[in-house]
Design a protein that fits this description.
The chain is mainly alpha-helical. The chain has helices at 2-7, 15-27, 31-36, 41-50, 53-123, 130-135. Helix 2 runs antiparallel to helix 5.
Length: 136
């Protein structure tokens, strides 16, 4: 169980490097067998073949790859969901901006036409100068 926990990487960038290190670290013959007891090397080789260490490591590596792929898919889903939400917020804000701008244009147009209407009505009034039209 401790080997399984140590081989499952938590970062996507080091995932493939960790898989290679697992295979080399677990499958390497320990220094004890090489230096202190060289006669144990055949026994060590027989035990690793009997326990099928190499195929088990391959299975664990494949499972970790599947978990990494699943984590990547879930991460992409969450990211896409957040981006979709942000996109809708931006669309609503643009719509509000267009609505405010259109309202401002119509209000200015209404104010200008009402000033022109007052200017046209007061132009017929005797005694008003062009300066007094601007003040209305």
């Amino acid at each position: 169980m401790s080997i399984y926990v140590s081989i499952c990487p938590t970062r996507h960038s080091t995932a493939h490097a960790d898989f290679g290190l697992l295979a080399s670290n677990v499958l390497d013959t320990p220094d004890l067998i090489w230096e202190d007891e060289p006669t144990l090397n055949p026994l060590y080789t027989a035990v690793t073949e009997y326990l099928e260490i190499k195929p088990r490591i391959q299975v664990l590596n494949e499972r970790c790859r599947v978990f990494l792929d699943l984590a990547e898919v879930l991460s992409d889903y969450v990211s896409d969901n957040k981006m979709s939400r942000i996109t809708w917020i931006i669309i609503v804000l643009i719509g509000i901006s267009i609505l405010v701008t259109c309202t401002e244009v119509f209000l200015r147009f209404a104010i200008l036409t009402s000033k022109k209407g007052h200017a046209g009505a007061s132009a017929t009034t005797p005694g008003l100068t062009p300066l007094s039209h601007e003040l209305l």
